[in-house]
Amino acid sequence: MEDSTPASKGEIRTRIEEIGIIPAIRLSSAPDALFAAEAVADSGIPIMEVTMTVPGAVGVIEELVRNNGEDVPLIASGGVNQHTAAEFILAGAVALGIGRDLIQPSAIERRERNWISELSRRFLRIVKEARAQMQAG
């Protein structure tokens, strides 16, 4: 019987360090993305990133979680913002790759450390609340 306990942050970090790569699934259709992700998982690489530029990316994440459970932690990236972040966590992503919506070019130009910190706290809160919703539901 397999352990269904979600992987801890330390376990996920260890997996990433052991493998040394995170394949980025960025294709033009959901079926192609699902095919590629399953092939990567079958190869023994136990973690991957699904970019939100894939049409139907949330469905791809949900399908991969159904097919692989906790065995393949998924990272959602590209198109992650404060309006979409919870949806990706609720679909089964264990982490989010957030770029421009967290580290905004204007904040860098103006050296607005406090704004970047505020956005970081907002994203952390969104993830925490989505995880709590998953556990409750």
Give the SSE layout.
Elements: H1 9-19, E1 24-25, H2 30-42, E2 48-51, H3 57-68, E3 74-77, H4 85-91, E4 95-97, H5 105-109, H6 113-136
Parallel strand pairs: 1-2, 2-3, 3-4
Helix pairs in contact: 2-3, 4-6
Task: Provide a quick synopsis of the model.
With 137 residues, the protein is of the alpha/beta class.
Shape: globular
What is the CATH superfamily classification?
Answer: Aldolase class I
Note the total helix count.
Answer: 6
User: What are the low-pLDDT stretches, counting only 5+ consecutive residues below 50?
Assistant: none
Estimated radius of gyration: 16 Å
Number of domains: 1
CATH class, named Alpha Beta
* Global mean pLDDT: 87
What portion of residues is helical?
40-55%
Number of strands: 4
Using the 3D structure, state the CATH architecture.
Answer: Alpha-Beta Barrel
Instruction: Please name the CATH topology.
Output: TIM Barrel
Helices and strands: which structural class?
Answer: alpha/beta
* Biggest β-sheet description: 4 strands, parallel
Percentage of residues in DSSP E strands:
5-15%
- Distance, first to last CA: 24 Å
Order of helices and strands: HEHEHEHEHH
What order do the strands of the largest sheet run in, or round the barrel if closed?
Answer: 1-2-3-4
